[in-house]
């Protein structure tokens, strides 16, 4: 009779399908690069304009908002250089919307891989967030070209604000994407809920209007809560870096913006922790539910 192997001989093994969460993604950097490359190369595959759509779509969105909100409704009054104000906010919301939406659908879209082999499931939402960032770069390039034409000279503080805003948005979108992406595997209603959330995204940040409109219309406590929204903070960091330097000095900016940015960073870190926790709890059912 053969005696079973002692428990110590199993120390080098791990339970199939388990991992260390999002930290394990860094061990699969090559595969992550492949997923990002595949996502960016196939996005406009077969289209006549190809990557030109990355410029056409935000430009069309800007024209619609500028004509309807700026000219027809007169919201451009009191906002100097309204086109720069508008576009610098639009691209932030576009980055959040694409990253959040793609991360939510990432497990469903890669169900063939999820069901057949073990990979850190977090690879898919992380890759989709990176893909959204790559598609964001052409929009940022358009804004930078316009700013340089009007004489914008960047400073270290402004660049730091832009980098911080991008990190806040990407982390926020990834945390929410992990949460809703895990729920979306078992309950496809989650995807519909995300679409509703994104419908409000443009309106819950000072993109089409100045923050002073909200301050004057809401009670102080509700306005302060509005200003703690990470999307609001990211938009205002972009405004502070790109729009405010092109205006007169008497234009009002949010008070304690860097303090708000620090609080927003803590909020998105908490969202990331919650999203990772829920994702880890539910990922054992992914293959079964798919």
Molecular structure report:
Keywords: Cell inner membrane, Cell membrane, Membrane, Transmembrane, Transmembrane helix, Transport. It comes from Agromyces flavus. Residues 49-282 form the ABC transmembrane type-2 domain. Pfam families: ABC2_membrane (PF01061). The protein has one domain (21-35, 54-289). The chain has helices at 29-42, 53-72, 82-109, 111-116, 123-149, 156-186, 189-201, 211-217, 220-227, 230-243, 257-282, 286-289. It is globular. The chain has 290 residues and is mainly α. The chain has twelve helices and no strands.
Number of E strands: 0
Count of separate structural domains: 1
Helix content: 55-70%
Spans of at least 5 consecutive residues with low confidence:
none
Q: DSSP strand (E) fraction?
A: under 5%
C-alpha geometry = globular
Number of helices: 12
**Mean residue pLDDT:** 84
Gap between N and C termini: 42 Å
Radius of gyration, CA atoms, in whole angstroms = 22 Å
The biggest beta sheet is recorded as:
none
Family: Belongs to the ABC-2 integral membrane protein family.
GO molecular function: ABC-type transporter activity
Domain ABC transmembrane type-2: 49-282
Keywords: Cell inner membrane, Cell membrane, Membrane, Transmembrane, Transmembrane helix, Transport
Describe the structure in brief.
InterPro entries: ABC2_TM, ABC2_TM_bact-type. This protein has 290 residues and is an all-alpha fold. The protein has twelve helices and no strands.
């Amino acid at each position: 009779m053969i005696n079973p192997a002692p428990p110590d001989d199993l120390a080098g093994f791990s339970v199939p399908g388990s991992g260390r969460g999002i930290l394990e993604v860094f061990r699969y950097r090559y595969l992550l690069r492949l997923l990002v490359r595949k996502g960016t190369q196939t996005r406009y595959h077969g289209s006549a304009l190809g990557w030109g759509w990355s410029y056409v779509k935000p430009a069309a969105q800007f024209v619609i908002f500028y004509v309807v909100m700026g000219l027809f409704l007169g919201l451009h009054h009191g906002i100097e250089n309204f086109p720069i104000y508008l576009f610098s906010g639009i691209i932030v919301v576009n980055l959040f919307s694409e990253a959040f939406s793609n991360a939510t659908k990432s497990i469903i879209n890669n169900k063939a891989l999820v069901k057949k082999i073990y990979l850190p499931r977090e690879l898919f939402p992380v890759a989709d967030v990176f893909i959204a960032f790559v598609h964001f770069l052409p929009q940022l390039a358009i804004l930078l070209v316009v700013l340089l034409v009007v004489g914008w000279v960047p400073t270290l503080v402004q660049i730091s604000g832009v980098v911080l805003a991008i990190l806040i948005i990407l982390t926020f979108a990834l945390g929410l994407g992990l949460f809703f992406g895990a729920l979306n595997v078992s309950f496809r209603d989650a995807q519909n809920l995300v679409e509703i959330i994104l419908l409000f995204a443009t309106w819950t940040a000072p993109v089409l209007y100045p923050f002073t409109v909200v301050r004057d219309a809401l009670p102080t406590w509700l306005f302060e809560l509005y200003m703690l929204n990470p999307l609001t903070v990211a938009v205002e960091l972009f405004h502070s870096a790109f729009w405010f330097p092109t205006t007169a000095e008497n234009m009002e900016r949010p008070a304690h913006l860097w303090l708000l940015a620090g609080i927003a960073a803590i909020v998105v870190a908490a969202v990331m922790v919650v999203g990772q926790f829920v994702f880890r709890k539910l990922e054992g059912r992914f293959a079964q539910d798919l």
